[in-house]
Amino acid sequence: MSWPWGLFLVYAVVTSWLAWRGGRSAASGAGFAIGDGRMSPWVAGITLGACLASSATFVIVPGFVYAEGLPALIGFTLPFIAGVAAGLILLTGPFQAWGQRCSALTVPHWLGERYESPGLRKLFAGLNLLNLAYLVLITVGCAYVMQAALGLPYAASVVGIVVFVFGYTGFGGAGAHALTNTLQGVVMLGVAALIAASGHAVFGASLESLASTGWTAPDSRLFSTTAEVWLVPALMGFALTTQPHLLSKALYVEDRAAVREMVAVALACFTVFSLVLLAGAYARVALPADLPQDQVMAAYLVQAFPWKPLSALVTVAILSASMSTLDGLLVAISASLGGDLFETPSLKRNRLILAGLALATIGLSLSPPKLVLILGQLGVYGLVAASAGPLLVGLFTKGRLPLRPAVASALLALAVHFGLALTVVDNPGVAACFAILVGVPVAAVGAVRSVSSLPSVVSPAPAEPRSAK
After folding, report:
1. Within 13 A of 279's CA, how many CA atoms are on the CB side?
2. Which CATH superfamily does the domain covering 3-389 fall into?
3. Count of other CB atoms within 10 angstroms of residue 280
4. What is the DSSP letter of 289?
5. Cα 226 from chain centroid?
6. Which residues have CB under 8 Å from 156's CB, separation 6+?
7. Mean pLDDT over residues 55-63, rounded?
8. Distance separating alpha carbons of residues 137 and 352, to the nearest angstrom
């Protein structure tokens, strides 16, 4: 048996055991969605950090650095991390406070309770299907790595990933997701540092190559202007923290102090994970100049780590990165579709929905588009653009909120995002920014009379202990 196969099988066994242990809290729909609500901030923080970094970070994004140089390296790191930090710091505390007040299990549940509207809850539960594009992005990135490292055919890799991850997630829910992500996150931290150090021999040449590209990439779909390098990533980093599988982590822990600790751990982990983007810079020097972007990372890893045990360890870490976000998305999507569309959580329903998502993910992943990151961004950015107005107004406004502006904000943001992204705007992030800038004021206008405080003085009624509910 080869080293990659040996370590991967060890990883699969350990992950399955952790999923079994974590699954003991998933005896109900509520336990499937958020566990017992008293998770360790360190476990929740590593889980959140691992969800922030997926196969997009470890596999797909380095290809953009390889192809486009300095603008891509900047855009995916400094402003993006700053936006993510601002979003987590500002949003998770108020979200948890209101969520505990109404015993929310998901973001759509939270919105439905905050606006006192079952219809709004169902609307955002349905919009979670936009995350199917992100499921495909992660699966494709993971399959490329399995194909290169384990020698499996691409189609077999896709099916194997989906069956394994969807299977243990369906069994264990949030508890399994948290424990497996803790393992995955620890492995990812070590290997991210290892990948960042792997290019020491070409570091100087890589810096020269990056400098030669300039501060923008005029022919790029994502970084052709200064605004696309700095402003768009910052705004989208902030907006992306509203994703259901990220913001809902605030409901995993017990109080505001635990939320702050969780966020600090998550941001530290995500910063370390982002060091893998340096591999794209190293690949500009170490690899030929005509490789497909989405396959650059797999090719670089084979060359950078010729010693088989080390190469196998790195491969398992990349697979961990993919699976850590995939299972988090699955918990959030299935809990929302299974509970919010029907207004009552059901473990059996969640698992049936996971089976349907598995079939859809396999079908779409077998014939991915040329730049799979664009597909993933198109769907995810549409969801966060629709959510931004209702969520921000709900978080930072006291009292009862009007429903119609929230619905109008969501629908208008969706129309603007997809209208621009599918016609005149190449960069889905630019389309989403315009959608957010249009949608948020629409949601805010209806609640302007009730705006009376900033997030720091939001004071919801104390929540009952989880155990009493």
Report:
1. 33
2. Sodium/glucose cotransporter (1.20.1730.10)
3. 27
4. T
5. 25
6. none
7. 84
8. 22
